Amino acid sequence: CGHQFGSFAGQLGDGAAMYLGEVLGPRGERWEIQLKGAGITPFSRQADGRKVLRSSIREFLCSEAMFHLGIPTTRAGTCVTSDSKVVRDVFYDGNPKNERCTVVLRIASTFIRFGSFEIFKPPDEYTGRKGPSVNRNDIRIQMLDYVISTFYPEIQEAYLDNTVQRNAAFFKEITKRTARLVAEWQCVGFCHGVLNTDNMSIVGLTIDYGPFGFMDRYDPEHVCNGSDNMGRYAYNKQPEICKWNLGKLAEALVPELPLEISQLILEEEYDAEFEKHYLQKMRKKLGLIQLELEGDSQLVSDLLETMHLTAGDFTNIFYLLSSFSVDMDPSKFEDFLEDLTSQCASVEELKVVFKPQMDPRQLSMMLMLAQSNPQLFALIGTKANINKELERIEQFSKLQQLTADDLLSRNKRHWKEWLEKYRGRLQKEIESVGNADAWNTERVKVMNSNNPKYILRNYIAQNAIEAAENGDFSEVRNVLKLLEHPFQEAEGFQEVKEDAEEEGAAATAAVCSQETRSKQSYCSKPPLWASELCVT
After folding, report:
1. What is the tens place of the pLDDT at every residue in 174-232?
2. DSSP 194
3. Cα angle 197-201-207, degrees, rounded to a multiple of 5
4. What is the percent of the chain where pLDDT is above 70?
5. Are 141 and 21 within 8 A, CB to CB?
6. Is 472 a residue whose pLDDT tops 90?
7. CA-to-CA distance for 227 and 225, rounded, in angstroms?
8. Which of 251, 282, 277 is nearest to 266 (CA)?
């Protein structure tokens, strides 16, 4: 069960997962093995239990990308496709098409979620829905005993004689793990897309890869899920949404953990843990390895504000910063500034970003409705959406008068201002060490192991999907190889070439159709066509 977009939806899931069993590793680690998309199960309801190639490739690649970025995640062992077809309406717009059935082998210590405990929920006061196991506290006790003894054995051992204290310690630990997890997401620009309670892992893993997206141009309000019309799961809202979800888990644990205890834990632990871990990670990304100063948080905020003002590429700008040094001569500084501003959106790209999305007559009607009938307006629109559209119109109008030279000049001014602050902060690092050269070597090493060069951008995934849909899986393998080494230069990288006989003539057609797209570097900011991609 679970809360979807803030409302309790009762039983959830399309019943497309089949457990193969549990494997115990040589060091005692425990792995659950699961097939996703293998066919109908008793929980499929009206669904067919199948998954398709495009979504399976995305899950397969992103699971492995997150693992190699060092972020807790479920894993993907294999991705197997066939010639069997199912009908899917990709964008829910009445245009269905046949797609190839595909099965992903998922691996995790457990797939139990927050929503697993919501099967006990009594009728919801807003939706009227309830869980299928209301009043079955005996099952809740069994589930808690299993989860804690299996995945939190140190907590089980420490509180053998006091169940409430044990449950409180467990809730405190999952609160901290969740806070650290979302801090890791924020630091690589990862947006989950569907942070419903049934998509939150009980052991603090990234789970259920659906309409996710790595942010390209930095926008704190970035929404990766095309069907999240209200922006509930926007990038900047992820920390507070995960905290809200923990609150729903707390409600689901009553009476085995009284709400007054869990709510206090949540308030005392979550924000503090998130802020601590986020700042620790950001210091590493900026190479602040010697000192922890009070102004560091503001330096990070100023950097992100500068990225936002200049529409800078989140991943590439962080990656470039390791080549900045305090004692750069003026010519090298100008070269660095050129590199930095080349990662900011062009006038053409900004026009795509700020292109108005509503028909002017529709916008006019909505504005009048907001004034004359606020109650009706609240049912069909939001003030935030209207304000965003008005902002788009204003920005788009300004862009018509903006030249490329004006934009470059403005961006350079913004980056010079921030780089002076950064230079001053690095100078304090140097003053606190005995050997500046050794410090700088270590600084660059730390930055290059925390700022990825390669992430799974939507356009990269789309190129791989389109080739695979035409029978050529070499691009999926190429991308996987890069994602397994996200922090390294791709020197000596050899593209995987499929045997032409094995893949058939369709592969040739796929390569030809992709030729112009595949020339784009894997670490480039996205091409203009990528802005049209929509993931729901």
Report:
1. 999 999 999 999 999 999 999 999 999 999 999 999 999 999 999 999 999 999 988 99
2. -
3. 95
4. 94
5. no
6. yes
7. 5
8. 251
List of E strands, 53-120: 75-88, 97-108
105, 75 in Cβ contact below 8 A? Answer: no
Name the nearest CA neighbour of 99 among 77, 84, 117: 84
If DSSP codes are grouped into helix, strand and coil, which group holds residue 16? coil
Complete DSSP assignment for 25-70: -TTS-EEEEEEESBS--TT-TTS-SBEEHHHHHHHHHHHHHHHHTT
Identify the H or E element spanning 18: strand 17-24
Amino acid identity at 207: I
What confidence tens digit (pLDDT) does each residue in 153-167 have?
Answer: 999 999 999 999 999
Q: What residues contact residue 484 under an 8 Å CB cut-off, 6+ apart?
A: 64, 68
Helix axes 137-151, 163-188, angle to 10 degrees: 60
Residue whose token pair is 């112009």: 516
User: Per-residue pLDDT for 503 more than 80?
Assistant: no
536 confidence band (pLDDT: 50, 70, 90): confident
Query: Got the DSSP string for 481-514?
Result: HHHTSTTS--TT-------HHHH-HHHHHHHHHH
Please give the Cα distance from 171 to 162 (Å, whole number): 14
User: CA–CA separation, 180 vs 317, rounded Å?
Assistant: 23
Count of CB atoms within 10 A of residue 368's CB? 11
The alpha carbon of residue 495 and the mean position of all alpha carbons in its chain are separated, in whole angstroms, by 27
User: Nearest CA to 203 among 227, 170, 236?
Assistant: 170
Residues 6+ apart with CB under 8 A from 293: 425, 428
Instruction: Assess whether pLDDT exceeds 50 at residue 516.
Output: no
| Structure tokens belonging to residue 198 | 């049934």
Task: Decide if 26 contacts 145 (C-beta within 8 A).
Answer: no
Which residues form the catalytic set? 198
Residue-averaged pLDDT of the chain: 92
